Amino acid sequence: MSVSDLSCLTRHTDGGRVLVDDLGKRYGGAAGVDAVAGVSLDIAPGEFVAVVGASGCGKSTLLRILAGFEAPTSGTVEVGGRPVTRPGPDRGVVFQDYGLFPWLTVAENVRFGLRQRGTPRRRAGQIADAFIEVVGLTRFADRFPGELSGGMQQRVAIARVLANDPAVLLMDEPFGALDALTRTQMQHELRRLYREAGTTVVFVTHSIEEAVYLADRVVVMTGGAAKGVPGHITEVFPVLLGDDRDVNAADFNALERAISERVHAG
Amino acid sequence: MSSPTTGRSAAAGRAALGFGVLAGIVGLWHLGVRGQWVLVFDIKMAFLPEPAQVARLLWDFAFGGVFDDAFSGTLWQHLWASTGRVLAGFGLAAALAIPLGVLMGRYRLVHAAFDPAVNLFRPIPATAWVPLILLIIGFGSQATIFLITLSAFFPILLNTVAAVREVPPRLVEAAQMLGTSRANVLLKVVVPASTPGIVSGLRIGLGLAWVILVLGESNGIEWGLGSMITLAREQVRTDRVVVGMIVIGLAGFLSDRILLHGLRGIFRRRPLVRAT
Q: What tens digit of pLDDT does each residue of A146-180 get?
């Protein structure tokens, strides 16, 4: 079953536009430190944008503000035309550490958001089953997260947010805790899911290769509180490599190198 | 991970070890009484009944037919009365402490409001409450239940507060981004996530309930293991005191097992109770 077949089960929200304008985040009051400053970004509906940068450059802070977990100290953030003030089901988040509920089975985890938003039990069950099938975990539907490998848990987390039909998918180093082989496999699956689901994706990673493999545009952030300069966007690279990307191709490597130089130039 | 067979035989081995230590204690007790040992703290073993004598008395206490006096066969009636008080006091403590603990653990304001009062009342031992309770409640069942509630309340409360505070913020964020209401974040995420800690608090509270039982039942109660022990002491019947102690120990042990396995039965494979 493909995700497009699932559109009859969900309301299938179209991807949302993400508009970030002159965003700033300061920790510790007036005399505190600026984690990010002057960040502006316009992400088209259905676009896949990767944000790369060294540790502490503020890329995760940006994502947490988009999610509504943290409030900006200056600037504005809009998703789907509405200002972001708190977390909401229009913005599904996939965390590096999965954030699954350990006392719920795989099926119950995937149903959770639907049930909380008032979807009737039967229908929520059908939608959850369909998304569990999409991520290939039907045989594990009645298992608990603690009984699954990291890669499987992250598949559950992705199914959980996709079942909730978000306009934007926010992913914070989602494959950072996985081994190299699983990571490659998950990247491959995510590309397939993304093409079928049509949501907007903001994907934070420190792997440039991952960013180039997945994204339509790669945003490079540098600086950060530790560097004495607030985290900011230095450059945005469009990725014009088509749909079938080969990590060993010359143009792929050239782009990867160009982005890497920009990241490390600071 | 060990295979089921080796796991089971290892468990059997551990059980055998535990029974071995128990048997050793009983053996030393027997030898000490026979040899009239005097131990540290001036413990005069000669004043103790022998294990075999206690076993016979325990049998008579439970089933009668050995001595056939007023004591014979009355265990169940004492145990029934005591269990009722333990359950009432423990149940009331849990019903008060868990909701308060969840709110104190989750909301700073509730914590700020109740924390000073909790810390002021908590160090007052149950024994210090007894004179006041006798004056304002009087002897009897109600005073006992009140004492048990008071004693079981604090460990349940403190464990609940600690468990709620240790709930990973990530789980709350996950619930929020899925569109969960504030009330359901508390009920569907914070409460289950803190359940292992709450259960630990319940087990400590239930154990304390049996400890405090003897104190509460030592005044103005006809039926109850505590009153039975108190009467035996007044009659200088060391053997009956020891029998009463053994029954309370067993009752406390069994109630803990029942609580734990009852909860495991409800939760089934859900990881909501800490492995022991």
A: 999 999 999 999 999 999 999 999 999 999 989 99
Chain A residues in contact with B173 by the CB 8 A cut-off are 67, 69, 87, 93, 95, 99
Structure tokens at B248: 């309370």
Interface test with B, best of A90, A96, A101 (most B CBs within 10 A): A101
Give the helix/strand (H/E) hosting B76. Answer: helix B75-106
Which residue on chain B is closest to A94 by alpha carbon? B174
If asked whether residues B108 and B238 sit together in one domain, one would say yes
Residue of A nearest to B184 (CA): A116
Residues B122 and B19 in one domain: no
Write down the ipTM of this complex: 0.93
List the single residue in B with minimal CA-CA distance to A88: B177
B219-238 pLDDT, tens digit each: 888 999 999 999 999 999 99
- Give yes or no: residues B222 and B263 share one domain: yes
Cα distances from B256 to residues A79, A255, B97, B203, B208, in angstroms, run 53, 64, 18, 6, 11
Contacts of B269 in chain A (CB under 8 A): 144
Residue A61: other Cβ atoms inside 10 A: 24
Closest by CA position to B133, among listed B120, B146, B149: B146
